[in-house]
Amino acid sequence: MKKINSILDEVLKEIKPSKKEIEEINVLLKKFLQNFKKKIKSSRLDAEIFIGGSFAKKTMVKRKAYDVDIFIRFNKKYKNISELAEKILRGFQKTKIHGSRDYFMIKVNPKFILEVI
Question: Are the C-beta atoms of residues 75 and 46 closer than 8 Å to each other?
Answer without folding.
Answer: yes
